[in-house]
């Protein structure tokens, strides 16, 4: 008996987002970081430049190298399909855009000397949102409390102790975005 297995595109937004991250990272590596600095990281640049506003969205696509990309892509590919199946493709696009804008704006305002790139904020939004998948009205999932304590708590500790070029603030802000969205979308 012969079976015809097909590859199914089960999460188009997650796959497209990961592909865009891959190509932005590849471009950054091939240009020695030039394209990353130009298009895929947000920093305190002039508000008169249209690129400042574009980068508030596109900074989640750029990564500092393959290990940075691989770490974020693994979480996005692991958690994203479940979230895309539960909430839908359009909703997941909203999560990516909202997280990019909020982390970009917070970084622009609070850390004018720090350039921000990478999808870590989106990853943390996904992590926290995943804990809401079994949410019922009138309850706070214990998994949410545990994940918040472990992931967000670790970022607060790392931010206070480490000086490692990792933006713990974008992780925390992404987690807060995921918590707010996860709660609002699941309380209905």
Explain what this protein looks like in three dimensions.
The structure is a single chain. This protein has about 190 residues and is mostly helical. The protein has a single domain (about 10-185), classed as Rhomboid-like (Rhomboid-like fold, Up-down Bundle). Helix content is about 70%, strand content about 0%. The chain contains 8 helices and no strands. It has helices spanning about 10-30, 35-40, 50-60, 65-85, 90-110, 120-130, 140-160, 170-185. It is globular, with a radius of gyration of 17 Å. The termini are far apart. The model has no long low-confidence stretch (mean pLDDT about 90).
Label this structure with key terms.
188 residues; mainly alpha
Describe what is shown at a glance.
Helices cover 68% and strands 0% of the residues. By secondary structure, the chain is mostly helical.
Instruction: Report the total helices.
Output: 8
Instruction: Kindly provide the name of the CATH class.
Output: Mainly Alpha
The main pleated sheet reads as:
none
Number of domains: 1
| Low-confidence parts | none
What Rg do the Cα atoms give?
Answer: 17 Å
CATH topology: Rhomboid-like fold
Shape verdict: globular
The helix-and-strand class reads mainly alpha
Helix content: 55-70%
How much of the residues is beta strand, in percent?
under 5%
Write the CATH architecture name.
Up-down Bundle
> CATH homologous superfamily - what is it?
Rhomboid-like
Note the run of SSEs as H and E.
HHHHHHHH
| N→C terminal distance | 47 Å
Number of strands: 0
- What number is the mean pLDDT? 88
Task: Describe the protein's topology.
Layout: H1 12-30, H2 34-39, H3 50-58, H4 66-87, H5 89-110, H6 120-130, H7 142-161, H8 168-186
Helix pairs in contact: 1-4, 3-5, 4-5, 4-6, 5-8, 6-7, 6-8, 7-8
